[in-house]
Structure formats: structure tokens, C-alpha cells
Write a structure and sequence with these properties.
This protein is an all-alpha fold and 313 residues long. It is 56% helix and 1% strand. Helix 15 (238-250) packs across helix 16 (258-279).
């Protein structure tokens, strides 16, 4: 059993996306300002770009829809815009089947009635927790990984009393200026060294597409992303997938965009899903009554043996 920190960023304002919304709202009051957007560089000092290119990239990326501050998803607008570009890899037939479905409108239907009156930081925290915390961080990256390796996770920050307490903390005690998780750092100032409390927050980054385009990558990658396999699945444009695969393979040692990495992993994951659970699905044969009895007897014997060894019996 292990204790981990999941939930602390969500409830106490630790993620950069929360500081992004503060900067963008501040910038939106004077869109022509040349120094307000420069605050973004303080969030991402480790971008693998020259200072000039980093400045241009950040200002261009985050200025899109800068004035749409009333949109309920304003804090996550850039993430949503980037994610939606993956749809360009879908075939025309699939896009037609999706039709006019609006995922943003669907998500809006699940918002609390007074959501529009919340502080903008509180709205951003709610969206982050509701969209990613349970299904992604606690499940895909949490329980599935730990349980598969005999480990059980415990999340102290997600104790309902801690969450309820954090919800009552004023926003400026969570983020003051660009100092995140202020109240937690103050509480732990005597326990943690200054180099931990003052260091720049950095996300952990998996190598994404680089994991699957190395010379010794597993053969299923090439098989499932082949033109034949992509055509057979019928979800993605084979020509575009081939171009993406070539780009990721050629530039595996370079810094690929978030869109390219996300598209590659998303397409490969979908191809694996179809291969394992649709095209190649083989349902397991149910155990017979006799096999169930044998399995139960063997399990009981092993349990009794373990209890004997540990002195329980």
C-alpha cells in the first residue's frame, strides 16, 4: 500500500493550466499589451525552444479566443482546441456519422446550476477534476497500474474532509500571483527544504510516440498502423496516418508537437482496441461446474497453507 499526492493539484491550485487562465484573463483586459503575455514565459522556462521562438509560440497559442472569457471552458480552451485537431485524421464517413454532436454542449449540461457565478479559478478546478481526475489519473494511471502490480493506492488529499476544507479556501490563498499551492507550501514550510518549496513546477512527461518508433519497437506497431490495417478498421485516413507515422519515425529524437504525439498515441490505442476486442476478440469459455470445484479446492488449500506458514492456524 502506498500514499500518493493525487488530488492536491486539483483542489489546491497546483497545475499550470490554472495559472494560464489567470494570465489570459489579465491579458484580455488589455489585448494589445506587449508585456502581459510575457508572463507566460515564467510558466514554461524549460520549453525546448530559443527564447524568441518560445515567446512567439506562447503568445500566438494563448491569444486564440483571448476575449471569450465568458465561455465556461475558457480555462481549458487551448487544450480542447488542440485535442479537437485529432478529428482531422478520421475518415470522411466517420466524421459524417459524428455529425453535429457537440461535446462541449454535452459537458455543459452536467455543470452545477450556479457555475457561472463561481470564481474563475474555482471553475477551472472543477473542469480539471471532473474531466480528468477520476477516469484518467485515478483509473488509467492509478488503479489499473497499481492493481496490476499488487499495489494499492491511497490518496490523502482526496479525503472528503480535505476536499471540503479546500473548497472553502479563498482563491488567492491557493494561487498568489504565480505562486501555486500557497496554503499547502505555507503549511509545510517547516517540513520541506527551500529548494523544494521554491522550485519551478514541471510536469512529468512520457516519451509518447518515441516509445513506439524506436528500431526495437514491438512489431504490432507497424502491423496495426499499416495501410492495410488502417483501411480495414475504417476509422482513420490511411494516407494521413502514414504521413504521421513517417514524421514521428524520422523525428523521434526531436521535439514533436503535442498534437502529433497525441494523434499518434490516440490512433495506435484505437487500433489496438479494435484488434483486441472487435476483430480479434475471443470470448473465454465459461468454467464447468467440475472445474469451478477444482479451482475452489486449490485456492482453499493455498490459503490454508499460507495461514499455517504465517502462524494464523
Amino acid at each position: 500500500m502506498v500514499l500518493t499526492g493525487e488530488g492536491s493539484d486539483e483542489i489546491l491550485g497546483g497545475y499550470d493550466i490554472f495559472k494560464e487562465v489567470l494570465i489570459r484573463r489579465f491579458w484580455a483586459r488589455n489585448p494589445e499589451s506587449t508585456w502581459r503575455p510575457s508572463l507566460l514565459q515564467r510558466l514554461y522556462p524549460t520549453l525546448p525552444l530559443s527564447p524568441a521562438k518560445a515567446k512567439f509560440y506562447l503568445e500566438t497559442f494563448y491569444k486564440v479566443d483571448l476575449d471569450q472569457t465568458d465561455a465556461y471552458y475558457y480555462s481549458h480552451m487551448q487544450r480542447i482546441t488542440t485535442t479537437s485537431k485529432v478529428k482531422s485524421y478520421l475518415t470522411r464517413e466517420v466524421r459524417e456519422q459524428i455529425g453535429g454532436y457537440d461535446s462541449l454542449q454535452a459537458f455543459a449540461g452536467a455543470l452545477p446550476e450556479d457555475f457561472a457565478r463561481w470564481h474563475h479559478l474555482s471553475r477551472a478546478q472543477f473542469l480539471e477534476a471532473r474531466s480528468l481526475l477520476s477516469g484518467y489519473l485515478l483509473s488509467s494511471q492509478g488503479d489499473r497500474v497499481t492493481a496490476a502490480n499488487g499495489v494499492e493506492g491511497r490518496y490523502p488529499f482526496l479525503d472528503h474532509r480535505v476536499v471540503e476544507f479546500a473548497a472553502r479556501i479563498p482563491p488567492n490563498y491557493k494561487i498568489l500571483g504565480l505562486k501555486e499551492k500557497l496554503v499547502l507550501k505555507k503549511a509545510m514550510s517547516k517540513e520541506l527544504p527551500p529548494e523544494i518549496l521554491k522550485r519551478v513546477k514541471q510536469p512529468y512527461m512520457a516519451p509518447d510516440s518515441n516509445s513506439f518508433v524506436q528500431p526495437d519497437s514491438p512489431s504490432y506497431v507497424q502491423d496495426l498502423l499499416s495501410e492495410e490495417a488502417v483501411k480495414r478498421t475504417g476509422l482513420f485516413n490511411p494516407h494521413m496516418v502514414e504521413k504521421l507515422k513517417e514524421k514521428c519515425t524520422k523525428l523521434f529524437h526531436a521535439h514533436l508537437s503535442f498534437k502529433d504525439n497525441m494523434s499518434f498515441v490516440g490512433i495506435l490505442s484505437t487500433q489496438i482496441l479494435v484488434d483486441q476486442f472487435i476483430e480479434g476478440y475471443r470470448p473465454e469459455r465459461p468454467l464447468s461446474a467440475q472445474e469451478c470445484t477444482v479451482w475452489h479446492d486449490e485456492s482453499s488449500t493455498q490459503t490454508d497453507s499460507h495461514r499455517s506458514e504465517t502462524g494464523i492456524l
